[in-house]
């Protein structure tokens, strides 16, 4: 069976969820071989094996933390040359997309970015993408070289699929460009204790209807009952009520959670572009004619200041 390389996104050995989702998709195409780089790479092996990695190629070197993405591209290229995989899967983070694009260029392959699904095809893996502000769904495959595909978080379930996960050291020679851009400092973002917006299974968003920074507390309270991330429309961000890092939409982040709850958001095309691929969409809006109701699975016509706190209380009661 063909092997499929999966680039492992991890923090000091703790594997991030989008990588486990990639393993689920990789198993549809062939046997997943994970590539884990940098400090803690070997510690990722047990988790990766539990989720289907037949092999884990590791390489630890200070360069991965000290320089930007080129050392990682060098290592992935070495893995491609060692394994001759059927495809290379990379999480669709900003860094993942940069690594994937550079890798595709290096190995002379085509690339597909932001896939939301992946299946085996007669002539190689077929990726599904959501395009033109989610108005169309396209299916495509790479016709040149080893397909390099980045996949958006929440595109597949995390599945237990125990496999050998044998750890093998990857031999990597860094290129002359590897040390070209040095990382001079890292500032950890203040932790809210909530999941990362693009990776969250549930997102609760607020818009202009929230009517003030202080009122976002009711959006956060609902999010915290659900273990969700908080999103915001551009109107709310432009008004200074919530940080731009939380903006959902064309000029913000693109999310694809299991559940998206929009409160006081009208549903402009630019907002839809960032959330329309959510599996279940719920909207709370006092205007029954708001365009958001055209795309929802469940709509509540009502004042968010009544509905959201009631919803939060109800969830709290049911959780006991
Ligand atoms: P509004 O459109 O003003 O809607 C507010 C809604 O809240 C209304 O439907 C109203 O009925 C409802 N409401 C008011 N009070 C209550 C209440 N008490 N209870 C319940 N409902 C209530 N927008 C984004 O979101 N993300 C982007 O990335 C983005 N990028 C853009 C890029 C470009 C180039 C452009 C031109 C625009 C972009 N926009 C983006 C802006 C977008 O066009 C809309 O202006 C924006 O999404 C509107 O935000 P909103 O829905 O919160 O506000």
Automatic annotation (TrEMBL):
Top-level taxon of the source organism: Bacteria
An example Gene Ontology biological process: fatty acid beta-oxidation using acyl-CoA dehydrogenase
Record flagged with keyword Ribonucleoprotein: no
InterPro entries cross-referenced by the UniProt entry: DHS-like_NAD/FAD-binding_dom (IPR029035), ETF_a/b_N (IPR014730), ETF_a/FixB (IPR001308), ETF_asu_C (IPR014731), ETF_asu_C_CS (IPR018206), Rossmann-like_a/b/a_fold (IPR014729)
Transmembrane segments: none
GO molecular function, a single term: electron transfer activity
Function, in words: The electron transfer flavoprotein serves as a specific electron acceptor for other dehydrogenases. It transfers the electrons to the main respiratory chain via ETF-ubiquinone oxidoreductase (ETF dehydrogenase).
Protein name in the entry: Electron transfer flavoprotein alpha subunit
Organism: Streptomyces griseomycini
């Amino acid at each position: 069976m063909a092997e499929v390389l999966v680039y492992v996104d991890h923090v000091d050995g703790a594997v991030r969820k989008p990588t486990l989702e990639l393993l689920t998709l990789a198993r549809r195409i062939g046997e997943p071989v994970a590539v884990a780089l940098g400090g803690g790479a070997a510690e990722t092996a047990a988790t990766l094996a539990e989720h289907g990695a037949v092999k884990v190629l590791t390489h630890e070197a200070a360069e991965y933390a000290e320089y930007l993405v080129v050392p990682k591209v060098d290592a992935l290229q070495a893995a491609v040359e060692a394994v001759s995989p059927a495809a290379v899967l990379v999480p669709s983070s900003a860094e993942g997309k940069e690594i994937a694009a550079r890798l595709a260029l290096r190995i002379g392959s085509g690339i597909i970015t932001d896939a939301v699904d992946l299946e085996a095809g007669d002539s190689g893996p077929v990726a599904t993408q959501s395009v033109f502000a989610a108005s169309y769904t396209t299916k495509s495959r790479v016709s040149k070289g080893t397909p390099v595909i980045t996949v958006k978080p929440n595109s597949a379930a995390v599945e237990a699929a125990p496999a050998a996960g044998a750890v093998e050291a990857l031999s990597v020679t860094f290129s002359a460009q590897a040390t070209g851009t040095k990382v001079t400092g890292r500032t950890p973002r203040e932790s809210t204790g909530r999941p990362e917006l693009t990776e969250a299974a549930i997102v609760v968003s607020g818009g202009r209807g929230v009517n003030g920074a202080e009122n976002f507390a009711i959006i956060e309270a609902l999010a915290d009952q659900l273990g969700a991330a908080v999103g915001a429309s551009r109107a709310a961000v432009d008004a200074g009520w919530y940080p731009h890092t939380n903006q959902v939409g064309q000029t913000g982040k693109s999310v694809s959670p299991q559940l998206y709850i929009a409160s006081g958001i009208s549903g402009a095309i630019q907002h839809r572009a960032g959330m329309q691929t959510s599996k279940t969409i719920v909207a709370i809006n006092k205007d029954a004619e708001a365009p958001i109701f055209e795309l929802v699975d469940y709509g509540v016509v009502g004042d968010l200041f009544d509905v959201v706190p009631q919803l939060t209380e109800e969830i709290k009661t049911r959780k006991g």
